[in-house]
Amino acid sequence: MEKITFTEKRNELDELLNLVGNYSEKADDNHVHLNLTGPDLTDDDAERAVDVLEEKTKYLPLKRNLTVMVDCNCGDLLDLSKKVKDSIRKQLIPLLYYVDLDLRRLSRVSAAMMVFGVLAMGTASLLSELSFNPYALHEILVIASWVFIWAAVETFFFDRRKLKNRKHHLYRIYFAEFVRTNSK
C-alpha cells in the first residue's frame, strides 16, 4: 500500500474545502433524474419513485421549481411522462394527508401540554399563598410546569417544522414538471 504523506493529504483537504467554499446553490439546476425499468408504473414502483424523489430533492432549494427527467428504455411512448406524473401524484395524496394529520395532532398535543403547564404553574402559585407551606408539592408543580411548557414549545416550533418542511417538499414533487428524456 502506498504511503500518503501528510502534505499530500492536507493538499487534498484544502482542495475539497476550496470546492465546497466556491459552491453555490445556484449550481443546482433543479433537475432530478428518475430511472424507470418499464412503461407501466405499479403502485409499488410509484411509491419507490416518490421515495427516490424525496431523497434526491432533499437538499435542493425550495425556492425554485423542480423538473423530473424520466429516463426509460421502454420504446416510444408519448404519454409516459403523464403516466408517471399521475402515478406519483396518486401516491403523494395519502402522504400529504398523513402529514397534515400529524401536523394537526402535534398542534393539539402542544396546546394540551401548554395548558397543563400553565395550570401546574398557577396551582403552584396558589399553593405558595396558603397559610401552610407545602414546599415539596410547590417545587414539584413548578418543575412540572416548566417541563410541560418547554415540551409544548419544542413540539410546536421544532417537531412541526420538520413535518412542514416535508410537506413543502412533497408539494414541490407534486407540482413538478415531468419530462421524458431520450433514452439510448
3D structure, described in words:
The chain is mainly alpha-helical and 184 residues long. The chain has one domain (28-180): subunit c (vma5p) of the yeast v-atpase, domain 2 (Up-down Bundle), CATH 1.20.1460. The chain is built from four helices and three strands. A three-stranded parallel sheet has the order 1-2-3, with helices on one face. Helix 2 links the parallel strand 1 (31-36) and strand 2 (67-72). The relative contact order is 0.15.
| CATH C-level category | Mainly Alpha
User: Largest sheet, if any?
Assistant: 3 strands, parallel
Rg, please? 26 Å
> Could you spell the SSE succession in H and E letters?
HEHEHHE
Report the end-to-end length measured between terminal Cα atoms: 40 Å
Would you count the extended β strands for me? 3
What is the fold named in CATH at topology level? Answer: subunit c (vma5p) of the yeast v-atpase, domain 2
Q: What share of residues is helical?
A: 55-70%
